[in-house]
Design a protein that fits this description.
Order of helices and strands: HEEHEEEEE
Number of strands: 7
Shape: elongated
Radius of gyration: 23 Å
Distance between the termini: 66 Å
Number of helices: 2
Largest sheet: 5 strands, antiparallel
């Protein structure tokens, strides 16, 4: 009598290993998205700190940008940051939205004339959700149907 595995037994084991590998990959993908969302929240907190430092030096006023501007380009330069946080997914996918900034105020773009602002980033681990940081100190998630105009903090944000 020969000892060994039958073809059916080997196929069953290979199938189980394949299913487990697929489950691990899916789980890992979700973890990566969650980690990038955490990085986004941290990056916007860094921008908030830099904006508050800018306001302290400029009579309590923030940089004025009436239209949404990319934070890592124009805002970062205005704040004098050496390294500018960018969306972690943007490096590998240039179609992914970057961090945005918009304020109230008037005058020349970038001038210290705004009294309030809104920063936002698209979240990856939640469908149609954005993480928003406001000059009022509020921060939270909100749906993409919300507009972020004039530096006004949107209502209905959740943690």
């Amino acid at each position: 009598m020969k000892k060994g595995f039958t073809l059916i037994e080997l196929l069953v084991v290979i199938s189980i290993i394949g299913i487990l590998a697929a489950m691990a990959t899916i789980s890992f993908s979700g973890t990566q998205k969650q980690a990038r969302d955490t990085a986004r929240k941290s990056d916007l907190a860094q921008y908030r700190t830099s904006l508050e430092m800018f306001a302290n030096k400029n009579g309590g006023l923030y940089p004025y940008y009436s239209a949404p501007t990319t934070a890592s380009d124009t805002l970062c330069t205005k704040l004098g940051l050496g390294t500018c946080p960018e969306d972690p997914k943007y490096a590998s996918d240039a179609t992914y939205p970057q961090y945005k900034y918009q304020s109230d105020g008037a005058g020349i773009a970038g001038s210290a004339s705004a009294t309030k602002y809104v920063l936002w980033a698209k979240l990856e681990n939640a469908t149609n959700m954005y993480w928003v940081v406001c000059s009022t100190g509020q921060s939270g998630k909100i749906t993409s149907s919300t507009t972020f105009a004039g530096g006004v903090c949107p209502s209905g944000m959740t943690q």
